[in-house]
Amino acid sequence: MAISPPFPPYPPDPGTAAEGNGLRHAHWWQHKWVRYGALITLLALSGLVILALVREQTGTQGFLVGLGLAILPVPLLIAAFRWLDRVEPGPWRNLIFAFAWGACAAALIAIVANSFATQWIATSTADPSSADTLGATVIAPVVEESAKAAAVLLVFLFRRRDFTGLVDGVVIAGLTATGFAFTENILYLGTAFGTDQLSGDSGIASVTAATFFVRVIMSPFAHPLFTVLTGIGFGIAALSAEGRRVRKVLLPLGGLLLAMGMHALWNGSSVLGAWGFFAVYGAFMVPAFGVLTWLVVWTRQRELGTVREELPAYAAAGWITPAEPYALGSMRARLLARKYARQHLGKPAARTVAQYEAYATSLAFLRHRGRLGRAGADFVSRERELLNELWRRKDVARPALEHAARMTAPPVPVTVPPWPVHGMYGHPAPGPYPHPGPVRPGSYGGYGSPAGYGAADGSGSYGSHGAPGGPGAHGAPGAYGSYGGQPPHAAGLAGQPGYAGQPAPLGGPGYVGHPAPSGHASSPGHTGLPTHPGHTPYA
């Protein structure tokens, strides 16, 4: 059984954290700007080459038409993957790299490799039609999925801190495939437009309209769906313990093989004719899309649960307030916190709150991996780094998050007491003692009026028992609770937001001084019932 990491120590004063020793001077090729420059140059050259190739095949007019139509689904797909990534947002540079790799490098590799392989098969078999079919169903899936998987592999290897789970793999793979599909759609739509120009077709009956319907309307998710399988393999591998090297190799390879198989099935459906295509679409593609969508949404909700479960340890140590785990575990509360900061302190404060949310989420995931025995050797240093980032932003983020927690807290259930609102016994019931009517002197004999009622109009005298009994032995209404004083506020559950339980509805104290029934001495005032412990607001 894995042992939970120790609680972090109480935070020191800002600026007292020890600074790490400086690293040795790195060689010039190890500087990050050198690596960034080389990567940007590679992607830019790939983009220029792919632009020239597509324009050569489609013509300038076809290229522009294809570009205008192919870009339509891109914002929707990017927004969908970004939404999935909102719990622990990855840096934009990773997302831009993934899209650019798919649109430039992966597309260039696919065009060159597919063309070369198809020509080689056609030359070897002397059958161009079978070469095209074989190229579409065998060569293209292997080449294209391998080229797209390279982007996921690069992020997995060189941006390991940003690649921590299944959602990260899905987002990187999905954006890479979105960029690849964007370039491929330009090529297909531009070529279809050129065909229509030669044949004179236009409108709904044109090849361009049919291509647009199949590739943009029916299946904008096709390429992302294939490559997401590879991303899931890398994501599960990222969750594996450090010693599971075989698993970290086999899981991505298994995801890649599944992606190739589904891609081959999709491309091969075109050989089966229109009915075969729609059968594959309805029987395989749509269900697979639904299952994967459910999986990633469920994983996203599970991540929010992890935040709520792991952060209370840091609240107990004083790094965060007790209300923050609840607020950080709710996307609605996070949004309210950013809006609150923007309204009161401006956009820089909203960005600070967003950074605080991201660091806190990373901290929760790090501790979760440590508790399961999956954290790396840098657990302590990484935890300290994230805690220091939170501590530097706490003055701006805490008020906003506490406000969001109050605004989104679930209502506290109120229990209605089974007795009347005036106490357990309420007002004395008339019972067998009706309200006295007009009394004539001497009507009650030697004892005068009944005890506790007195004369109705002042004409009759009190009997030997005298005036009605005074207040009971306890005097004023009973004190709250068992010890007197104010009602106790129950402390919130450990690990939950610091909203103390609200006191339950109090049993009303007996009202002192009401007359006792005839023939009995005045009863003392009843003390109030002990209050029940407050209900904690978060179960």
Describe what this molecule looks like in 3D:
The structure is a single chain. The protein is mainly α. Among the domains are: 32-310, no CATH class; 311-408, no CATH class. 59% of the residues lie in helices and 0% in strands. It is elongated and about 80 Å long. It starts with 31 loop residues before the first helix and ends in a 131-residue tail after the last helix. The model is unreliable at 10-23 and 439-539 (pLDDT under 50).
What does the radius of gyration come to?
37 Å
- SS-based class: mainly alpha
Provide the β-strand percentage band.
under 5%
- How many E strands? 0
Poorly predicted runs of 5 or more residues: 10-23, 439-539
Largest sheet: none
Give the rounded overall mean pLDDT.
Answer: 78
Helices and strands, in N-to-C order? HHHHHHHHHHHHHH
Tell me the overall shape: elongated
Measured between the Cα atoms of the first and last residue, the distance is: 27 Å
Number of helices: 14
| Helix amount | 55-70%
Layout of strands and helices, then pairs:
Layout: H1 32-70, H2 74-84, H3 92-125, H4 128-158, H5 166-199, H6 207-218, H7 222-238, H8 245-268, H9 273-310, H10 312-316, H11 324-328, H12 331-345, H13 347-371, H14 379-408
Helix pairs in contact: 1-3, 1-5, 2-5, 3-4, 3-5, 4-5, 4-7, 4-8, 5-6, 5-7, 7-8, 9-13, 12-13, 12-14, 13-14
